[in-house]
Amino acid sequence: MTGETVHNLRGDYSRMRPDYTVEQEWDGYSDAEHDLWRRLFARQVALAPKYACDEFVEILPELHFGDGIPRFDEVNAKLKPATNWQLVAVPGLLPDITFFDHLANRRFPVTVWLRDPKEFDYIVEPDIFHDFYGHVPLLFQPVFADYLQAYGRGGLKAHALGAIEMLARLYWYTVEFGLIETPKGLRSYGAGTLSSGGELPYCVDSPNPNRIGFDLLRIMRTRYKIDTFQETYFVIRDFSELFEATAPDFTPYYELLQGRPPHEASTVLPTDRVL
Ligand code: HBI
Ligand code: FE
Protein backbone atom coordinates (compact mmCIF):
# COMPACT_ATOMS: atom_id res chain seq x y z
CA MET A 1 0.00 0.00 0.00
CA THR A 2 1.08 3.60 -0.39
CA GLY A 3 1.00 6.44 2.09
CA GLU A 4 -1.60 8.37 0.11
CA THR A 5 -4.33 5.81 0.50
CA VAL A 6 -3.93 5.17 4.21
CA HIS A 7 -6.56 7.64 5.36
CA ASN A 8 -9.30 5.79 3.50
CA LEU A 9 -8.76 2.74 5.66
CA ARG A 10 -10.79 1.59 8.60
CA GLY A 11 -9.58 3.00 11.94
CA ASP A 12 -9.27 6.47 13.48
CA TYR A 13 -6.18 8.13 12.03
CA SER A 14 -7.12 11.61 13.32
CA ARG A 15 -5.21 11.58 16.59
CA MET A 16 -2.03 9.69 15.70
CA ARG A 17 1.54 10.88 16.22
CA PRO A 18 3.88 11.40 13.23
CA ASP A 19 5.03 7.77 13.51
CA TYR A 20 1.35 6.69 13.32
CA THR A 21 1.23 5.51 16.95
CA VAL A 22 -1.76 6.21 19.21
CA GLU A 23 -2.79 5.41 22.79
CA GLN A 24 -4.52 2.04 23.23
CA GLU A 25 -7.21 3.59 25.51
CA TRP A 26 -7.96 0.21 27.01
CA ASP A 27 -10.76 1.61 29.23
CA GLY A 28 -12.68 2.45 26.06
CA TYR A 29 -13.34 -1.17 25.06
CA SER A 30 -16.93 -2.23 25.79
CA ASP A 31 -18.01 -5.39 27.63
CA ALA A 32 -19.35 -6.68 24.32
CA GLU A 33 -15.90 -6.22 22.74
CA HIS A 34 -14.16 -8.07 25.58
CA ASP A 35 -16.74 -10.81 25.21
CA LEU A 36 -16.19 -11.05 21.44
CA TRP A 37 -12.43 -11.25 22.06
CA ARG A 38 -12.94 -14.11 24.55
CA ARG A 39 -15.03 -16.01 22.01
CA LEU A 40 -12.45 -15.50 19.26
CA PHE A 41 -9.73 -16.56 21.68
CA ALA A 42 -11.62 -19.68 22.83
CA ARG A 43 -12.05 -20.93 19.28
CA GLN A 44 -8.41 -20.41 18.31
CA VAL A 45 -6.84 -21.69 21.53
CA ALA A 46 -8.75 -24.98 21.16
CA LEU A 47 -7.13 -25.46 17.73
CA ALA A 48 -3.63 -24.44 18.78
CA PRO A 49 -2.28 -27.70 20.27
CA LYS A 50 -2.94 -29.58 17.05
CA TYR A 51 -2.11 -26.89 14.50
CA ALA A 52 0.20 -24.24 15.99
CA CYS A 53 3.95 -24.60 16.46
CA ASP A 54 5.23 -25.43 19.95
CA GLU A 55 6.78 -21.98 20.41
CA PHE A 56 3.30 -20.45 20.05
CA VAL A 57 1.50 -22.99 22.23
CA GLU A 58 4.06 -22.83 25.02
CA ILE A 59 4.10 -19.05 25.46
CA LEU A 60 0.30 -18.53 25.27
CA PRO A 61 -0.54 -19.46 28.90
CA GLU A 62 2.00 -16.92 30.15
CA LEU A 63 0.31 -14.11 28.25
CA HIS A 64 -3.21 -14.42 29.72
CA PHE A 65 -4.84 -13.46 26.42
CA GLY A 66 -8.01 -15.34 27.36
CA ASP A 67 -9.24 -12.87 29.99
CA GLY A 68 -10.35 -10.19 27.51
CA ILE A 69 -8.64 -7.69 25.22
CA PRO A 70 -5.05 -7.51 26.53
CA ARG A 71 -3.32 -4.35 27.69
CA PHE A 72 -0.32 -3.35 25.59
CA ASP A 73 1.67 -2.16 28.63
CA GLU A 74 1.24 -5.48 30.47
CA VAL A 75 2.47 -7.48 27.49
CA ASN A 76 5.31 -5.03 26.88
CA ALA A 77 6.55 -5.59 30.44
CA LYS A 78 6.99 -9.30 29.55
CA LEU A 79 8.22 -8.81 26.00
CA LYS A 80 11.01 -6.33 26.79
CA PRO A 81 13.11 -8.69 28.92
CA ALA A 82 12.33 -11.66 26.60
CA THR A 83 13.44 -10.34 23.20
CA ASN A 84 13.65 -6.55 23.58
CA TRP A 85 10.62 -6.00 21.31
CA GLN A 86 7.80 -3.59 22.18
CA LEU A 87 4.24 -3.31 20.93
CA VAL A 88 3.04 0.07 19.69
CA ALA A 89 -0.65 0.91 19.27
CA VAL A 90 -1.69 2.01 15.76
CA PRO A 91 -5.01 2.95 14.10
CA GLY A 92 -4.74 0.23 11.42
CA LEU A 93 -2.70 -0.41 8.29
CA LEU A 94 0.40 1.77 7.97
CA PRO A 95 2.29 3.03 4.93
CA ASP A 96 5.00 0.52 4.04
CA ILE A 97 7.90 2.74 5.13
CA THR A 98 6.34 3.50 8.51
CA PHE A 99 5.61 -0.19 9.05
CA PHE A 100 9.17 -1.22 8.10
CA ASP A 101 10.69 1.49 10.28
CA HIS A 102 8.85 0.20 13.34
CA LEU A 103 9.96 -3.39 12.67
CA ALA A 104 13.56 -2.31 12.05
CA ASN A 105 13.50 -0.78 15.55
CA ARG A 106 11.90 -3.83 17.20
CA ARG A 107 8.52 -2.14 17.59
CA PHE A 108 5.54 -4.22 16.45
CA PRO A 109 2.49 -2.18 15.34
CA VAL A 110 -0.75 -3.57 16.78
CA THR A 111 -4.12 -2.28 15.59
CA VAL A 112 -6.31 -1.00 18.46
CA TRP A 113 -9.80 -1.74 17.11
CA LEU A 114 -11.65 -5.05 17.26
CA ARG A 115 -13.73 -6.44 14.40
CA ASP A 116 -17.52 -6.39 14.28
CA PRO A 117 -19.31 -9.55 15.55
CA LYS A 118 -20.44 -10.16 11.92
CA GLU A 119 -16.75 -10.61 11.06
CA PHE A 120 -16.25 -13.45 13.55
CA ASP A 121 -15.15 -15.89 10.85
CA TYR A 122 -13.43 -13.61 8.40
CA ILE A 123 -11.93 -10.14 8.31
CA VAL A 124 -10.07 -8.42 5.48
CA GLU A 125 -7.91 -5.90 7.35
CA PRO A 126 -5.86 -6.76 10.42
CA ASP A 127 -7.68 -5.95 13.71
CA ILE A 128 -6.44 -6.28 17.29
CA PHE A 129 -7.32 -9.97 17.43
CA HIS A 130 -5.25 -10.80 14.35
CA ASP A 131 -2.36 -8.55 15.37
CA PHE A 132 -2.27 -9.52 19.04
CA TYR A 133 -3.22 -13.18 19.06
CA GLY A 134 -1.58 -13.98 15.72
CA HIS A 135 1.67 -12.02 15.86
CA VAL A 136 2.62 -11.30 19.47
CA PRO A 137 3.37 -14.85 20.76
CA LEU A 138 6.10 -15.42 18.16
CA LEU A 139 7.76 -12.13 19.14
CA PHE A 140 8.87 -14.09 22.22
CA GLN A 141 10.83 -16.55 20.02
CA PRO A 142 14.37 -15.07 19.80
CA VAL A 143 15.29 -16.22 16.27
CA PHE A 144 11.91 -15.28 14.80
CA ALA A 145 12.12 -11.93 16.60
CA ASP A 146 15.50 -11.25 14.96
CA TYR A 147 14.11 -12.31 11.58
CA LEU A 148 11.29 -9.79 11.86
CA GLN A 149 13.69 -6.96 12.65
CA ALA A 150 15.88 -7.98 9.70
CA TYR A 151 12.74 -7.97 7.54
CA GLY A 152 12.03 -4.38 8.59
CA ARG A 153 15.56 -3.31 7.71
CA GLY A 154 15.26 -5.12 4.38
CA GLY A 155 11.98 -3.33 3.75
CA LEU A 156 13.60 0.08 4.05
CA LYS A 157 16.22 -1.06 1.50
CA ALA A 158 13.64 -2.64 -0.81
CA HIS A 159 11.68 0.59 -0.83
CA ALA A 160 14.71 2.45 -2.15
CA LEU A 161 15.20 -0.25 -4.82
CA GLY A 162 11.56 -0.40 -5.93
CA ALA A 163 11.31 -4.02 -4.78
CA ILE A 164 8.56 -3.82 -2.13
CA GLU A 165 6.30 -6.18 -4.05
CA MET A 166 8.87 -8.97 -3.96
CA LEU A 167 9.63 -8.42 -0.28
CA ALA A 168 5.94 -8.26 0.62
CA ARG A 169 5.57 -11.81 -0.76
CA LEU A 170 8.20 -12.97 1.70
CA TYR A 171 6.23 -11.48 4.61
CA TRP A 172 3.04 -13.03 3.35
CA TYR A 173 4.43 -16.55 2.90
CA THR A 174 6.37 -16.55 6.19
CA VAL A 175 5.11 -14.16 8.89
CA GLU A 176 1.45 -14.43 7.80
CA PHE A 177 1.05 -17.94 6.36
CA GLY A 178 4.24 -19.87 7.10
CA LEU A 179 4.32 -23.57 8.02
CA ILE A 180 7.09 -25.31 9.95
CA GLU A 181 8.10 -29.00 9.94
CA THR A 182 8.13 -30.50 13.43
CA PRO A 183 8.53 -34.06 14.80
CA LYS A 184 4.74 -34.01 15.32
CA GLY A 185 4.04 -32.97 11.73
CA LEU A 186 3.41 -29.66 9.99
CA ARG A 187 2.44 -26.74 12.19
CA SER A 188 1.58 -23.08 11.57
CA TYR A 189 3.73 -20.19 12.72
CA GLY A 190 1.94 -17.60 10.53
CA ALA A 191 -0.35 -15.02 12.10
CA GLY A 192 -2.87 -15.16 9.25
CA THR A 193 -3.52 -18.84 9.87
CA LEU A 194 -2.99 -18.87 13.66
CA SER A 195 -5.76 -16.27 14.03
CA SER A 196 -8.20 -17.89 11.55
CA GLY A 197 -10.81 -20.45 12.60
CA GLY A 198 -11.15 -21.89 9.11
CA GLU A 199 -7.67 -21.64 7.63
CA LEU A 200 -5.71 -22.97 10.63
CA PRO A 201 -6.98 -26.56 10.26
CA TYR A 202 -7.02 -26.15 6.47
CA CYS A 203 -3.35 -25.18 6.12
CA VAL A 204 -2.23 -28.32 7.96
CA ASP A 205 -4.88 -30.93 7.10
CA SER A 206 -6.45 -30.14 3.73
CA PRO A 207 -5.28 -32.16 0.71
CA ASN A 208 -5.95 -29.16 -1.56
CA PRO A 209 -3.13 -26.64 -1.14
CA ASN A 210 0.48 -27.10 -2.21
CA ARG A 211 3.04 -27.28 0.58
CA ILE A 212 6.49 -26.46 -0.71
CA GLY A 213 9.85 -26.29 1.03
CA PHE A 214 11.05 -22.77 1.83
CA ASP A 215 12.94 -21.20 -1.09
CA LEU A 216 13.60 -17.47 -0.82
CA LEU A 217 13.79 -16.57 -4.51
CA ARG A 218 10.86 -18.82 -5.37
CA ILE A 219 8.73 -17.07 -2.74
CA MET A 220 9.67 -13.60 -3.94
CA ARG A 221 8.45 -14.61 -7.41
CA THR A 222 5.13 -16.02 -6.24
CA ARG A 223 1.84 -14.12 -6.26
CA TYR A 224 -0.61 -14.59 -3.40
CA LYS A 225 -4.36 -14.45 -2.83
CA ILE A 226 -5.68 -12.03 -0.23
CA ASP A 227 -9.36 -13.03 -0.33
CA THR A 228 -9.33 -16.86 -0.27
CA PHE A 229 -7.47 -19.56 1.62
CA GLN A 230 -3.93 -19.83 0.26
CA GLU A 231 -3.26 -22.16 -2.66
CA THR A 232 0.35 -22.65 -1.60
CA TYR A 233 2.09 -22.67 1.77
CA PHE A 234 5.87 -22.60 2.15
CA VAL A 235 7.42 -24.76 4.84
CA ILE A 236 10.52 -24.01 6.90
CA ARG A 237 12.55 -26.65 8.76
CA ASP A 238 13.23 -24.31 11.66
CA PHE A 239 13.47 -20.59 12.42
CA SER A 240 17.23 -20.59 11.81
CA GLU A 241 16.63 -21.60 8.18
CA LEU A 242 14.41 -18.55 7.82
CA PHE A 243 16.85 -16.20 9.49
CA GLU A 244 19.92 -17.46 7.64
CA ALA A 245 18.32 -17.56 4.18
CA THR A 246 17.25 -13.95 4.56
CA ALA A 247 20.50 -12.64 6.08
CA PRO A 248 22.30 -11.70 2.79
CA ASP A 249 21.77 -8.41 1.00
CA PHE A 250 18.82 -8.92 -1.37
CA THR A 251 20.02 -6.40 -4.00
CA PRO A 252 21.38 -9.04 -6.44
CA TYR A 253 18.24 -11.17 -5.93
CA TYR A 254 16.02 -8.25 -6.89
CA GLU A 255 18.14 -7.63 -9.99
CA LEU A 256 17.87 -11.30 -10.92
CA LEU A 257 14.08 -11.39 -10.43
CA GLN A 258 13.19 -7.99 -11.87
CA GLY A 259 13.02 -9.17 -15.48
CA ARG A 260 11.16 -12.42 -14.79
CA PRO A 261 7.40 -12.88 -14.70
CA PRO A 262 5.89 -13.95 -11.36
CA HIS A 263 4.53 -17.44 -10.70
CA GLU A 264 0.82 -17.80 -9.97
CA ALA A 265 -0.19 -18.76 -6.43
CA SER A 266 -1.14 -22.27 -7.58
CA THR A 267 1.97 -23.11 -9.61
CA VAL A 268 4.15 -26.10 -8.74
CA LEU A 269 7.61 -26.18 -10.35
CA PRO A 270 9.76 -29.25 -11.08
CA THR A 271 12.38 -27.77 -8.75
CA ASP A 272 9.99 -27.45 -5.78
CA ARG A 273 10.46 -29.63 -2.71
CA VAL A 274 6.83 -30.72 -2.44
CA LEU A 275 5.78 -32.02 1.00
N1 HBI B 1 0.55 -2.02 8.49
N2 HBI B 1 -0.43 -2.17 10.58
C1 HBI B 1 0.12 -2.77 9.51
N3 HBI B 1 0.24 -4.12 9.49
C2 HBI B 1 0.80 -4.76 8.42
O1 HBI B 1 0.91 -6.00 8.44
C3 HBI B 1 1.26 -4.00 7.34
C4 HBI B 1 1.12 -2.61 7.41
N4 HBI B 1 1.55 -1.86 6.38
C5 HBI B 1 2.21 -2.44 5.24
C6 HBI B 1 2.28 -3.90 5.25
N5 HBI B 1 1.83 -4.60 6.23
C7 HBI B 1 2.84 -4.65 4.07
O2 HBI B 1 2.57 -3.92 2.91
C8 HBI B 1 4.34 -4.96 4.17
O3 HBI B 1 4.56 -6.14 4.89
C9 HBI B 1 4.96 -5.16 2.85
FE1 FE C 1 -0.61 -9.78 10.13
Task: Provide tags for this entry.
binds fe (iii) ion, disordered N terminus, EC 1.14.16.1, 275 residues, single chain, ArAA_hydroxylase_sf, monooxygenase, 45% helix, globular, alpha/beta, two-stranded parallel ribbon, Phenylalanine Hydroxylase
**Whole-Å distance between the termini?**
33 Å
CATH architecture assignment: Orthogonal Bundle
Strand order of the largest sheet: 4-3-6-5
- Share of residues in helices: 40-55%
What structural class do you assign from the helix and strand content? Answer: alpha/beta
Query: Tally of extended strands?
Result: 6
Low-confidence stretches: 1-5
CATH superfamily, by name, is Aromatic amino acid hydroxylase
Rg (CA only): 18 Å
Overall form: globular
- State mean pLDDT (0 to 100 scale): 95
Count of helix runs: 12
Report on this structure.
- The chain has 275 residues and is of the alpha/beta class.
- The chain has a single domain (3-258), classed as Aromatic amino acid hydroxylase (Phenylalanine Hydroxylase).
- Helix content is 45%, strand content 10%.
- It is built from twelve helices and six strands.
- It has helices at residues 31-51, 54-63, 72-83, 96-104, 128-135, 142-161, 164-176, 191-194, 199-205, 216-220, 239-245, 251-258, and strands at 86-90, 107-111, 179-182, 185-188, 210-213, 232-236.
- The protein has a four-stranded mixed β-sheet with strand order 4-3-6-5.
- α4 (96-104) runs antiparallel to α6 (142-161), α6 packs antiparallel against α7 (164-176) and α6 (142-161) runs parallel beside α11 (239-245).
- The structure holds 7,8-dihydrobiopterin (HBI) and fe (iii) ion.
- The site of 7,8-dihydrobiopterin has 12 residues, from α4, β2 and α7.
